């Protein structure tokens, strides 16, 4: 029997926990107001991120690529009582609306929202991070990984999104952007500093645990 992707997504969403009312609004307003709403993590992946965060119980989280804040709010659910989440995005046009979501959440005093180039902001964050979620410009994924790996303690978790790239990683003649993702995956597969597995969730989520 052939499984239709939309049917499978609907089934997964109906067999996991519901989104809270704020996440539902972020989801709805993203699809109403953004030109590329598919960049949103969404209900099912959001619950995966929330569960992984709760399993790690991080004191410090780093997110590279905020978009409209959906994944940010999901990751924040696992923070320790005195924890902080740093999230970085380059799009200042979304700042007011996204900050409003954060202010309305239960994590208003735990989310530090940075606007600017992550390559510039990352060196200013002199902290260790128990959990890192990389979901920004794909061509710099390896740079982000190498930049933060030494700020992640043993047992820390790094997540990198979109590593299956809509299945294009299997193309016999991949385009340049796909080649960059294939190269990233190949390099990470050989990296002895981390234990790793790609979870075939949505567009592929690379989970890497620092040894």
From TrEMBL:
Keyword Methyltransferase: yes
A Pfam family of this chain: Methyltransf_3
InterPro entries cross-referenced by the UniProt entry: Cation-dep_OMT (IPR050362), SAM-dependent_MTases_sf (IPR029063), SAM_O-MeTrfase (IPR002935)
Assigned keywords, A-Z: Methyltransferase, S-adenosyl-L-methionine, Transferase
Any one GO biological process: methylation
MF (Gene Ontology): O-methyltransferase activity; S-adenosylmethionine-dependent methyltransferase activity
Entry-linked CDD domains: AdoMet_MTases
Metal-binding keyword on record: no
Name of the molecule in the record: Class I SAM-dependent methyltransferase
Organism of origin: Sphingobacterium paramultivorum
């Amino acid at each position: 029997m052939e499984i239709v992707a939309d049917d499978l997504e609907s089934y997964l969403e109906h067999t996991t926990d519901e989104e809270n009312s704020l996440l539902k609004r972020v989801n709805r307003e993203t699809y109403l107001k953004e030109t590329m709403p598919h960049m949103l993590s969404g209900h099912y992946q959001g619950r995966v991120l929330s569960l992984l965060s709760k399993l790690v119980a991080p004191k410090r989280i780093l997110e590279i690529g905020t978009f409209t804040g959906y994944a940010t709010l999901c990751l924040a659910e696992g923070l320790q009582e005195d924890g902080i989440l740093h999230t970085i995005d380059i799009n200042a046009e979304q700042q007011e609306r996204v900050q409003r979501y954060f202010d309305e959440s239960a994590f208003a005093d735990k989310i530090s929202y940075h606007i600017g180039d992550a390559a510039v902001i990352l060196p200013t964050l002199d902290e260790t991070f128990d959990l890192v979620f990389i979901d920004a410009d794909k061509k710099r994924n390896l740079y982000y990984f190498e930049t933060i790996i030494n700020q992640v303690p043993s047992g820390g978790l790094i997540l990198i999104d979109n590593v299956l790239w809509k299945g294009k990683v299997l193309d016999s003649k991949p385009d340049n952007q796909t080649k960059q993702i294939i190269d990233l995956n190949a390099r990470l597969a050989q990296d002895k500093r981390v234990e790793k597995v790609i979870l075939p969730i949505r567009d592929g989520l690379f989970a890497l645990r620092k040894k």
